[in-house]
């Protein structure tokens, strides 16, 4: 049976790096969605892939809505033909027909939900996959300018909003519209006069809903704002718990939390109170409608204008009459929330990806010669971070970048890694303009050991193998030995198969650094970038890291960002930066002889 039900749903597997083919295609141009109508059309371009499945769903919705109207009609016939006249002929047949109507209505409702859930999940699976794939292709500059938590909410909360809406709201909206139209049509057919009288509650309903929603929208907005405030405060407090306790600020934090909690309680109270008026209003209007139908219907029965069965049908339809209107009002807000979420998702998908210049070549090998020629760059339009920077680095040299905070050290590394391209000037690698080299190819010949070590929630072996995915276990262990990481890894409960927690927690900061060095050793890059790799490390571990780094830097062009000058005295070339310019360059001894800026830094002047 299940196989038969699933037969129409042989979902297409989507190539996520290609546009979907909908009515007009998923992506016409790379542009931001600016209105909810346009976003709805774009969501349809995803759903349009499953037209066959949607047809089955719509048929079930029509069947379910139609059968929901047949039930009350049969009950009215039963009253008129059998209960009023006491004629029991064919009563059993009518009761069986009524039972089958409700049975088939339940079956149709189950099928429409079952199939729509399949369509919704496949749709959000495609959207989520395309969003994540696109995120991997965006330039670093995009992530630098946005909060990571906000981007994560697009992959999680916004996509989930779309999912929940497609799962239920689409069906409820279509069903409510069909039910409402069907009820009005049958009521007019049975008694136009009684229909007009029954519809007198609609203006009251519209006015009441408008009055309530105008106020609840303000309260719910305040509630979400206060909820966001308290969530941010809790996250900040938990992440900074050591600072809170160190400075004995528990009482102040508790007081601040209670104040925010009180504000949230007040906003939530009024939001829920006003929103609670909606079902009460509907019940009151239902009762009013029933009273009107009973009063006017009784008068019409006495005048033989209608039958008692018609009154029963009208009473039941009047009860159902407000339900689709109420559902439409509720689902409209849900739909707008989902469209807003989808708009945020599409805004990311429409961001231009990181692209190489036409004709860019892949590097097969790299010696490591690097030349900066009059390079200038700025993150913002009117504020140059580095200006007219020039230097030459021969293959295998160690170059140290020193200078005060904001001097441009990290910017030079970002340009060398092609996370950004210079605004002017030229960067050459092995005599070739860097912009003519494919980014992926360039980075495959580079290794990074950064101050903030990034390890993933996987085994230590897999973290090291991240540098070379096809490496054997022996190669992984040899890299660990060269990085001085082998001994501590062997002492762990499961050795190389020890699974690290999130962010590599479970081992010390120095041990994380040794694992990251082993990862780079395994990658065997031609150019090495070290960003204060020994900061916040104890002396014993620092000695191990320095030894591992010396092994790593042998024969490789190395760029070292250092704040502790004693770690870079053996560098072949030291570049001293200030205010985005190279103000001094030379070896450690040469710079000390000049008694310039570096001399002052070295001796703490």
Q: How would you describe this protein?
A:
The chain is an alpha/beta fold. The chain has 3 domains: about 1-10 and about 25-185 and about 325-355, ABC transporter transmembrane region fold; about 190-305; about 395-405 and about 435-600, P-loop containing nucleotide triphosphate hydrolases (Rossmann fold, 3-Layer(aba) Sandwich), CATH 3.40.50. It has helices spanning about 1-5, 35-45, 50-85, 90-135, 140-145, 150-190, 190-200, 200-240, 240-245, 250-275, 275-300, 310-350, 410-415, 440-445, 460-465, 475-480, 485-490, 510-525, 540-555, 590-595, 595-600, and strands at about 370-375, 385-395, 400, 425-430, 430-435, 445-450, 525-530, 555-560, 575-580, 580-585. Helix 3 packs antiparallel against helix 4, helix 4 (about 90-135) packs antiparallel against helix 6 (about 150-190) and helix 18 runs parallel beside helix 19. The longest helix has about 45 residues, at about 90-135. The chain is elongated, with a radius of gyration of 35 Å. Mean pLDDT is about 80; it is low at about 10-35.
Features:
four-stranded antiparallel β-sheet; alpha/beta; ABC transporter transmembrane region fold; 605 residues; Rossmann fold
């Amino acid at each position: 049976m299940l196989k038969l039900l699933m037969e129409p749903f042989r979902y297409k597997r989507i190539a996520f790096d290609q546009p979907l083919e909908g009515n007009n295609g998923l992506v016409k141009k790379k542009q931001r969605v600016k209105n909810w109508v346009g976003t709805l059309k774009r969501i349809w371009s995803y759903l349009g892939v499953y037209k066959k499945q949607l047809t089955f769903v719509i048929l079930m919705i029509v069947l379910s809505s139609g059968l929901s109207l047949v039930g009350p009609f049969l009950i009215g016939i039963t009253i008129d033909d059998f209960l009023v006249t006491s004629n029991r002929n064919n009563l059993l047949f009518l009761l069986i027909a009524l039972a089958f109507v409700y049975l088939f209505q339940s079956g149709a409702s189950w099928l429409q939900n079952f199939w729509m859930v399949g369509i919704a999940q496949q749709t959000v699976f495609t959207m989520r996959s395309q969003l994540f794939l696109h995120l991997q292709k965006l330039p670093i500059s995009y992530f630098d300018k946005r909060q990571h938590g906000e981007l994560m909410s697009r992959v999680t909360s916004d996509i989930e909003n779309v999912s929940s809406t497609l799962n239920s709201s689409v069906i409820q909206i279509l069903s409510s519209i069909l039910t409402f139209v069907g009820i009005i049509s049958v009521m007019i057919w049975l008694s136009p006069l009684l229909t007009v009288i029954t519809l007198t509650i609609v203006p009251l309903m519209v006015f009441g809903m408008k009055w309530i929603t105008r106020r609840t929208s303000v309260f719910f907005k305040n509630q979400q704002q206060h909820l966001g405030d308290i969530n941010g405060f809790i996250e900040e407090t938990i992440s900074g718990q050591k600072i809170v306790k160190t400075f004995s600020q528990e009482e102040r934090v508790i007081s601040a939390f209670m104040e925010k909690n009180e504000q949230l309680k007040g906003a939530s109270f009024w939001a829920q109170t006003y929103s609670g008026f909606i079902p009460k209003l509907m019940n009151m209007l239902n009762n009013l409608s029933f009273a009107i139908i009973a009063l006017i219907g009784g008068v019409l029965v006495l005048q033989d204008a209608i039958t008692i069965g018609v009154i029963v049908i009208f009473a039941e339809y009047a009860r159902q009459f407000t339900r689709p209107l109420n559902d439409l009002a509720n689902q409209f807000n849900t739909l707008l929330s989902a469209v807003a979420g989808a708009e945020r998702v599409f805004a990311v998908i429409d961001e231009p990806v990181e692209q190489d210049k036409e004709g860019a070549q892949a590097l097969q090998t790299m010696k490591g010669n690097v030349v900066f020629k009059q390079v200038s760059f700025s993150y913002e339009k009117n504020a140059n971070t580095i200006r007219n920077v020039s230097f030459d680095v021969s293959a295998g040299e160690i170059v140290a970048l020193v200078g005060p905070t904001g001097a441009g050290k990290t910017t030079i590394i970002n340009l060398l890694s092609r996370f950004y391209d210079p605004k002017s000037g030229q960067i050459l690698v092995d005599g070739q303009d860097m912009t003519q080299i494919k980014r992926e190819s360039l980075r495959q010949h580079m290794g990074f050991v950064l101050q903030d070590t990034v390890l993933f929630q996987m085994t230590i072996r897999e973290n090291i193998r991240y540098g070379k995915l096809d490496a054997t276990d022996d190669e992984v262990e040899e890299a660990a030995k060269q990085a001085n990481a082998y001994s501590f890894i062997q002492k762990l409960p499961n050795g190389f198969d020890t699974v690290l927690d999130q962010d590599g927690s479970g081992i010390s900061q120095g041990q994380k650094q040794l694992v990251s060095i082993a990862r780079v050793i395994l990658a065997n890059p031609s150019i090495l970038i070290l960003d204060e790799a020994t900061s916040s490390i104890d002396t014993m571990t620092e000695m191990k890291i320095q030894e591992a780094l010396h092994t790593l830097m042998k024969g490789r062009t190395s760029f070292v960002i250092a704040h502790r000058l004693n770690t870079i005295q053996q560098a072949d070339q030291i570049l001293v930066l200030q205010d985005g310019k190279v103000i001094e360059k030379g070896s450690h001894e040469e710079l000390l002889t000049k008694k310039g800026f570096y001399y002052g830094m070295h001796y703490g002047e």
